[in-house]
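Standup notes
- DV: blocked on the single-chain target, sequence here:
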Amino acid sequence: MAGDYAARIKAYAVPLILFSLAMLYQLVLLPRSFPPSHYDVLGIKTYGSIEDVKEAYENLESKWNSGLEVPTTTEFIKIRYAYEILTNPIWKRNYDVFGIDEQLHVLEKVSQQSAGENFSNIVLPLLHADAPDTDDAFNVITSKDFQSMFQDPKPWLIQVYSSSSNRCAQFANSWKRIAALLNGIANIGMVELGETQIAAYLAERKPTGQFFFRNGLPSLVAFPSGCKTSNCLIRFQGELSVDAVIDWFSTAVLNLPRIFYYSKESLGPRFLAKSSPHKVRVIYFSKTGERATPVMRQAAKDYWNYATFACVLWREEEFSIWWTTFRVESAPAIVFLKDPGLKPLVYHGSVNDSWFLDVLKQNKQQELPQLRSLTSKELGCDARGYSRAGHDTLTWYCAILAGRLGPELDSMRETMRRVQETLLKSSELKADSEDEHSITAAVALRNKRLSLSWIDGEVQKNYCFFYLNVENSYETCGPRRVPTDVPRLFIVRYEKNATKDTAMVEKKAKSIWEFHQQEVDPAAQLSVTYNGSAEISEV
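- DV (later): unblocked, structure below
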């Protein structure tokens, strides 16, 4: 009998011990691991009213005055701090709903300064409820606006703020700058904590159920384009600076590329040398070192087929280097590097977004552009397209320079660019000029019936061999076999067919751009190779 009793005790002992330890942890150890709330300090129930707070403080104060209780300096400071927080309606709301108490540093500061003094000598009040300037708030979102704002397809950046927050007031100027940089790219809005329903919707939630903002206020949240619920919003967790916020929004929300900074040592090998030869290189010289604006990054994304971008931090001691290389004499400045041998195009001074986009659009291509599948129809050098002069043009021409990248091709590209300049100037001559052929070519160029371009004979070998189908094509097209390259110029004449039903298309091989559609080209092609010298007048 005794043995059975001992066996039962032994069987239940371990579960009972574990249960007891769990209760001890939950009821004793766990609550002590969290700091007491301001309500605990005053000895009242959580979320008590302002009247309850005042009554509790008056009871304690009467005991202190009567000498029944004498608090330590630290105890008095905590009680007084809790009283001042919980009797301010806005501070109490922020603390009750979102656990926000951004003045704890005052509590620590007063405790250190008053150490060893009698509590009666402490200067009151501890906190100053001077209302920050709320005139800086703009585009404030209310519960009525919240649902309808997502009808705009642009992404949203929202600041959750409190009208009583000094941190939010200090962030006001930075917020205005952020709004200016995102103007036209994203929508900007502000939500005050008084809009409790919206603020709670934008907040995170603790396991206890309380809403909170991880890094306090102001808190920034973004709704990417197409996002209409809190399930897909993105929270900013970094430093509250203009540069950090703009970089986060541009990268994480707008999916825009970064534009990197280069030094005088790295600009050449890491940017200029690695840029695609057909792209215009755009270099922005910054005086502050701020990251590229969203507009510039959006332009880098929109024009990535035409241009590549870099930033350089301007240093006065490097003036001679940048002046000698690009003719840049101060910052801010923007440099456009186009064709080989062509002087850099430099713009000094601050620029606005619309001006920058207009200048970029004008200079997105080299003076002598590279003919590629992307630009063939734009240049009018595609039998499947039409002349730049219009769909009704019956005959038009493309002069194309082919060769491998190197000094020989660069020299010939510069020659062709000068030919183009000469023809443009010649188009202003009178029609009775002695050089009838030059006038004809000049007029064709002016009227967009003639285009000049170049191709990379090594990379675009199929296109190159398609037109230069001669014995010595290997000197110009395909992989480099000999040390010396021979750039070649050929002219393609396009003649529009009268009707597609009767179209007879001359073909030497498959389509140049490897199109596999079995459709009729709207124009016939005839090419001729130039075998003369590199003299501008002869070309």
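- Follow-up: DSSP finds 19 helices and 15 strands in the chain.
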